[in-house]
Amino acid sequence: MPSAHLMILDAASDAPACRNALATLQLPALSALLAELPPAPLERLPDDALDTPAERALAQAAGLAGDDGRLPWAAAAAVAAGLPSAQDWAFLTPCHLEVGMNQVRLTDPAALALPAGQAEALMASMAPYLAEDGIVVERWQDGRWLAHGAPFAGLATASPERVLGEDNLNAWLPTSPLLRRLQNEMQMLLYTHPVNDARETQRLVTVNALWISGCGSWPATPPRPPAVQVVDALRTSARQGDWASWTAAWQQIDATHCAPLLQRLRAGEPVALTLCGPQGSRRFDGRPRGALARWLASWRKPQLAQLLEGL
After folding, report:
1. Nearest to 59 by CA among 75, 46, 48, 81
2. In which region does residue 89 sit, left (phi positive, over 0), alpha (psi from -120 to 50) or beta (all else)?
3. How large is the average pLDDT for residues 54-80?
């Protein structure tokens, strides 16, 4: 059975076109949920936070502790994959950096669609250099490598998702001189790599950098499993600023995810809903209310755009 905690990513944006879309968007199941579930205070992160609001909200739901940029997501993935937990883990994400006159931007790594064969060839070339610095790559999964080594201990990092759209990536790179040197070496290695020659011939985006994120070790007392259903169907349209497609995707989510959650609430189950945006997140949870309480909440409820303000 799906989780009774639903987390929806890119639920809103401060873009004026998004606010205009929210003003007329009809989401009956979501509106009913928000009328019945009391809201927690808005969790808004600072502009320079390394974590995204979704990452921080998911960590809180899972009971996973860590300072900003130090949530051990790679260790969690390693444990889920059956790899040894007593290591300092990191994600190594192959990516493409667009270098302009006054800016360096990260292309969405998902756009690479890197086949496993190309990933293996790239890692075969990089592995000796990584090993010299005590880094061992264990597995390729979900478009990135899982690696462990002492250089990742206590390292604060930002995920690729966090830095998409940023113009100056220097502020988001790891502070470790060793890892910065290693990233520079990998850029030089990738510049003339046969995999990139083949990708250029096919007019595909090349791999010219490695992004390091999700660093840390798994806690000695493991947190509870995150019983959260994460919905990211709004991601692509939100990133592209395509608010017509975003609206259509929201209506689909309302019918396929919010409506079943509302049914569970009205059947007597406690449920939770977390809505995340680029700046913040807000959680709504509770147990079913009586008919009078539901009517009063519905009568007093703020507009949808107000509840999503600040995300």
Report:
1. 75
2. beta
3. 90
pLDDT tens track for 129-157: 999 999 999 999 889 999 999 999 999 99
Cβ of 45: how many Cβ atoms within 10 Å?
19
Mean pLDDT across the stretch 45-68?
Answer: 90
| Tokens found for residue 257 | 């995810």
